[in-house]
Amino acid sequence: MLVFTTARNEQLRLPHFLSHYRALGVGHFLFVLNNSDDATEAFLAEQPDVSLWQTKAGYKASRFGVDWITWLLFRYGHRHWCLTVDVDEVLIYPHCDTRSLPDLTAFLEQSDAAAMGALMLDLFPQGPLDQPTYAPGQDPTEVLTHFDAGPYRAERQLPAQNLWVQGGPRDRVHFADRPARAPTLNKLPLVRWSRRYAYLNSTHSALPPHLNLAWDGPACVSDDTRLSGALLHTKFLPDIVARSREEKARREHFGRPEDFDDYYDWLSSAPDLWHEGAVAYQGWRQLVDLGLISAGGWE
Fold first, then answer.
1. Between vectors from CA 144 to CA 140 and to CA 145, what angle results, nearest 5°?
2. Which superkingdom, per the lineage (predicted)?
3. 167 in a domain, yes or no?
4. pLDDT at 254 (0 to 100)
5. What residues does 154 pair with on adjacent strands?
6. Which domain holds residue 148?
7. What is the DSSP string of 154-199?
8. Taking Cα atoms as reference points, which of 227, 39, 243, 284 lies closest to residue 130?
9. Whether the predicted pLDDT of 256 surpasses 60
């Protein structure tokens, strides 16, 4: 099992990221480090199961890292099950507490599945985003304790037939008056890779189009019962405030930079995303019960 990811200034999240995926059976990590100026490089260079590439090229010019990862997938991922995730994404799936990623991919192969879909589930604390404390290596769910169980909405887009799922706390709080601009929450992180494949937009969509049909979205918005997982999104650890100010200044994000100024200003204000309807995170079984992921007959 191979993990592919890009990183910049991630020394806070990397200890837990590596330990989590090692525990799931990942054999090797392939990192592209982009313009990092903290201790990330030194930390990764010490890891025996990490291969590290570095670039000072523009993140936006590389289609937000997709071009860099595509080259690595082409060179090293062919005919392997490959997991492409960001450092702030913690993959969980049915039985992940007792079954490894190789167990999961064996089941997917038996089911003739070439990929597994996942909901990016925004986790958040109870209170302003800058109030908790977090130590490197700590389980982020001890700090980011809650999530939105719904509503989520999903639709297909042409011509690639890719899924488009939206919802969650950012949709609820910041994009309530412009829901079409809310973040996309569907991903295809786990794929039995071929040199004929390519990601289009992060791991939100892929080519050929049949890969996008591997998942129809959370069961709460569809009747899809194929096995799926969730990427616990740890974006809202307390460093989000400083990172948002920096990202606004770097202007390396999607679309026109000025369109995101108010978004980064909002995050820089350390908003409180918690509300009375927030659900305390308890594990994969809870997400199955809520219809956010599916066991797909894997009993």
1. 115
2. Bacteria
3. yes
4. 54
5. 165
6. 2-289
7. EEEETTTTEEEEEEHHHHHHTSTT-GGGSPP-EEEEEEE--TT-EE
8. 243
9. no
